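Lab meeting notes turned into a lecture example. A postdoc, R.K., suggested we walk through two folding results consecutively so the class can see how the record format repeats. The first protein's sequence and structure tokens come next.
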Amino acid sequence: MVLDAPTMLTLTIALAAAAAGYLAIEWRSVREAALLYWSAGFALICVGSTLALLRSQGLLLVGIWFANGLLILVHGLFLIGVARFTGGRLSLGWWAIAAVWLGLLLLPNEPWWSKVMLVVQSFLIGVLAIRASLLLRRRNAGERQLRMVLLAHGLFYLAKMIPPLTPGALIDLAVYRGVIIQISLVEGVMAVMLIALSMTGMVRYRREQRIERLAGSDPLTGLHNRRALETEAPRLFGQASRERPGALLLIDLDNFKQANDLHGHAAGDGLLIALSDLLRTTLPRRALAARLGGDEFVVLLGEAADTDVVRLADTLRLRFNQLAAQRLRTPEPVTLSIGAVLFDQPPESLAALLERGDGALYEAKRGGRDGLRISVG
């Protein structure tokens, strides 16, 4: 294949169009705002490369520096997309780049003007690409690859600032002549391909994470479901010792059926969601909370002495009882019964621990409800 300007520009258009389309389709399923910025960036590459291709065939539609300005906008969109994807922050100062470029377009068209424009354009693109690379945290293969590609791409553009200042260097953007222009076209094709592949890898990883999270979540409360609890519990069990005992709390709502019968299942679901929110805000940082089904919840604690369990159970019961009384009126109050199991060595299994917790919970129910019973052993 001949690496002339028309061939390189055609390849760039095809790759960028494919990337823009793929990212737009992915956005429809994952609704990740970053994908829209990236898709728009690749779409602008298509526009700019098409304008450049028409220019190479003798059809001048817009000034060449307008087309080059699109390339700066592309990298700005890539940077914003990376910031949205990673949760990074960008200061308003980055908008000054647009002001710098527009200011240069207003300068008189002197013999030195094109070289100054090329130097400034290379600097702005290089800075945008490097800043985007620094926002990436290298949490997966796609993110690590994109970080390296953007870093190398940015350094390439910073290096492009040197040739325009070198006497005798041939840089003719109007007809795409000179070694620097040819190298830039080849690098552009490679950059588009690698950036697109890296972004799609990141999107795939994010989608798989989302699917995995949904598979392990209770759809009503957002807490772990039993499957996720069985996956996470062994890690906590392995830390249990006499110095660092653990605990399981099995929680059940008293008189929950009355709430459903009198106020409807939507009101009952509201109580379950309120309890899940209470667990999130009250439990220690490393605790695990899950909904086993119906109105039954389970909490796993590490480094929990019996006094810690009693204090936590009392706090949960008091706060939930007040919340339920404010929300719903029932013949008998909706309260919490809790059965707790303390263990100072890794238990045989989660199922065995739940069975002991169920026995303690039964004792709490039989003892008048709205209470705590602890099984030690």
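The second example is placed directly after the first for contrast:
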Amino acid sequence: MSFLLRKKTVLLGIVFVLLCAAFLIACGPSKQAKNAKRYKFTGRVVSIDKQNKSIIVDGDDIPGFMSAMTMPYQVKNSSDLDKVATGDSIAAEIVGQDNDYWLENIQVTKHPTTPPAKPSASLHIPESGEQVPDFELVNQNGKRISLNQYRGKTLILTFFYTRCPFPDFCPRVTHQFAEINRDLQADAALKSKTHLLSISFDPKNDSPRALRNYAATYTKGESSQIFNYWEFAVTPEKELSKVANYFALTCTEENGAITHSLSTAVIGPDGRIFKWYHGNDWTSSELVKDAADALHVAS
């Protein structure tokens, strides 16, 4: 009897150890992403958004990668945000993979003794209710357009460039806009009060013809009338920095490719920001709902 008891105790002990090991593996840090690039990063915390697991940092220069810039970053480990506060100086790692990027291993190096200094190179973050400037663009037909011409409708816009090779970036966003287009085409009332606009930040290469060819990939089977509802446009070279800064878009050309962030906005009929999304953490159904909500608020 004692032998059976000892055997049962040993078996229970083994099960307990295995369960503990499984728990530690599940709760421990995930494996490093394959082919990910890591850069040492320092800066000062401007603001924290725990709900969306993001942080805006006035970052220092990273030679060979990025100039000093204030911009938002996603944070994979939400517990990293529990130990930082606005004004803190931090050290961390920027992890980049497939043109996505985020912060890991955040450590506070200094708490502020005086109010934080104004960022040296501030990237504007669109906020709900802000009036959007009347930026001028050139569309797929070579026609000059401006954002003010969509007043009275909800404008859903995003950014891309036609040569983007990263599946989770421009191609994914454009596929999602194609879904939005199909959803809105099926709702005549909503379609008449909305407009889609995909904006390229590559004026050197994205000519009207390149924009039309790119659009054809995502609008198969639809007539050219699609451009009356979903336009593809490019930002002129002289306007690029203003447009990019307003919509918190970062883009740096390197070896023929453009390293960039993602930015998507819903602009109400009054020309004001209704909602802004950093990254690709949104769905087509969410943007359709945002468009409907923006119209409801304006009515």
